[in-house]
């Protein structure tokens, strides 16, 4: 076994071309993408990725959550595979790189190995996890959560989008329901390369984030029940105003997050008013609270305080309040050996680097439950993500993919 030498590099131009090619599938309205999970655009993106994997000589497996696993065999038939993955689905107003960079960099390292005639002892499996974003079906990282045994398959199939369509039906409809049992695969290691989605690496002028941890999360879906009534003729003292309760709860979430500093965030990104008419007080308001921090005790404390204070706010207004947790994972510590491998790859390649905690959730968080796992990050312009204007440079993309290449080769062990 020989380790990767510092002259081994991926083909950055080919990686960038593939990113731009994938970005043509499910275009957004402002230069980014709307390739939400299990839509026709998702199917088109999957088909394109499949054709690239097959052209690179890989074998494709698909599990019952629709997750795609493209395998390049190793030389040792008994060696467990090294997995490299992320996601091709996007937010409704998503960028071109969130998730896509990780999947296509996985493909690029295989293409580079083919060019360079490199074989590895362990197989390498490039993975496209279904529904990482959770934009259409909550929670995020749904398929990797089922894979890790944290989310039941039937629960996943029953998740509904805002139009009432179920995950299970939509997976069948786009033709990507596979036959593999979810989670049956065993991993030697899991790597995920992702844009930072925050401002730290760019501000610190570092090319590589060595990801040591990921913060934990709760998504709480709040349903407030008021009374529909005329906005003009109903006196103020006779209103049962679910919209007002929501506004007060939003303010309270902000206060809880600010009181939990440093290292905690909280906010609301989705809300539905019923009937959503200008001159009707809403009878029903459904919205989702997203809270995150790397500190488990703090995370659970924030949740408890939000639930208690939301109930008080609603009660004072005579509004009904039900809160359902619809997404959760504990803070994650990534595997120290793999983390060190990422750091030493950055050193060997001469890229500047620093340790970083992931602010966003990733499939790596669930993979870390079943295998040694870690991540590589590159900067993104202005820290902007979940926005069509999300941007990275070809040089940043290449540097992170080079580091991924080296860390994966070291783990998969170059044969001969
Ligand atoms: C996934 O994109 C998340 O919400 O962190
Ligand atoms: Mn992502
Ligand atoms: Mn995302």
Automatic annotation (TrEMBL):
Any Pfam family the entry gives: Peptidase_M20
Answer yes or no on keyword Hydrolase: yes
Show the CDD domains listed in the entry. Answer: M20_bAS
Which part of the chain is the Peptidase M20 dimerisation domain?
A: 215-314
Q: Which GO terms describe its molecular function?
A: hydrolase activity
InterPro entries (alphabetical)? Amidase_Cbmase, Bact_exopeptidase_dim_dom, Peptidase_M20, Peptidase_M20_dimer
Q: Family per UniProt?
A: Belongs to the peptidase M20 family.
The name of this protein is Zn-dependent hydrolase
